[in-house]
C-alpha cells in the first residue's frame, strides 16, 4: 500500500506541471489522512462496525437521495448529465465512493446472517440479496453515474460468490442479463453511452478521433510514445502540454506509459495484482463469513475499477468514468479506498491466529462488564 501510494504521488507530481491545481499536494494530504484513518480502523473489530449495519444502510440511502436531488450536476459536451457530487467544505465529494465501502459492510453482514441461519440459498433470500444490491445500482443509474452502478454490480457478484450462493443462481442471472441487453441498449442507455461503446472499436475513423474517441486516441498515443522505458519522469512533453484530458484522474495510466514506458505500466499492473492477491489471502484467513465477504467485496471494487480503467486507457474497453484505484487523483475516491483498506486490515488483525494488540469489540467489552458486576 505504501509503494502504491508513493507511486501515485510521483505521477501526480509530474501531472501538476501542466495543471493550475497542484494535485500532488492535495493527494499527499489525502494519502496521509487516509492511511491514518486506515490505521485506526485496523485496530477496531470490523464486527463491531458491521453491527451498526442498519445505520450504515440508512445513511447510504439518505446520502444518495440527497445527492440525486440537491447534488452538483456535471454536464458534458457529449450529452453527459450526472448529478453524483455534493459540496463539502468548499470541495466536491462523490458520495457513491463512500457508499461503496458502506455496501461492502452491509451486504457482507446480510450474507453472514443468512449463512448463520442456513438460508443463503433459499430462493426468497437470494431475491432479497439481489434487491439489496439493486438499491445502490439503481440510485447510481438515476444519478447518471452508470460507471459506479457497474462497480456495485460486480461487488455484488464477488461477494455473493464468496458468500456461498449456489452457481445455479449466477447462471440464471447471466441468462437474465443476456436477455435484457437489447432492452438496455434501446431504452436505457443514453446516446453518448452508446457512442462510447461503438467508438472504441472504430478509433481509426478520423471523425471519431476528433470527437467521442479523442480522449482514448490521445491516451493510447501517450502510452505508446513511452516505448520500453519511457521519456523519463517529469520529461513527458504530452503530459506537460496536457494533451490527454483528465490525465490526473481517469487517464493517469497514460502518464505512466509516456514517462515510464512499458516497464512503468507493468509495475502498476503488478502492484495492483499483488495487492488483490493479498486481499484474497486475507479472505482465506478471516475468522468468519462477515470478514471473508468484506474482503471479496473490496476485491471486486479494486479489480473491476483497475481492469476498466486500464482497459479504457488502452482503448480496449469503452470509457466508463472510473478511476484507477489508489493512483488517480480525487479526494473522495482516495479517502474512501483507504477506509476500505483499513477495514480489510481489521479483518487481518482479528484473524483467529493473530497475536497483535487491538481494540476490543463492543460485545467483548459488554461481556467483561457483566462479569465484573457479577
From TrEMBL:
Q: Which UniProt keywords apply?
A: Cell shape, Membrane, Transmembrane, Transmembrane helix
Q: Name one GO molecular function term.
A: lipid-linked peptidoglycan transporter activity
Q: What is its main location?
A: membrane
Topology with respect to the bilayer: Multi-pass membrane protein
CC per GO annotation: cell division site; plasma membrane
Where, per UniProt, does this protein localize? Membrane
Specify the domain of life of the species encoding this protein. Answer: Bacteria
Q: Where is the signal peptide?
A: none
Stretches assigned to coiled coil: none
Entry's Pfam families? FTSW_RODA_SPOVE
Offer one example of a GO biological process linked to this entry: regulation of cell shape
Which chain regions cross the lipid bilayer? 27-44, 51-72, 145-162, 169-188, 260-281, 293-317, 323-344
Q: What is this protein called?
A: FtsW/RodA/SpoVE family cell cycle protein
Species assigned in the record = Hominenteromicrobium mulieris
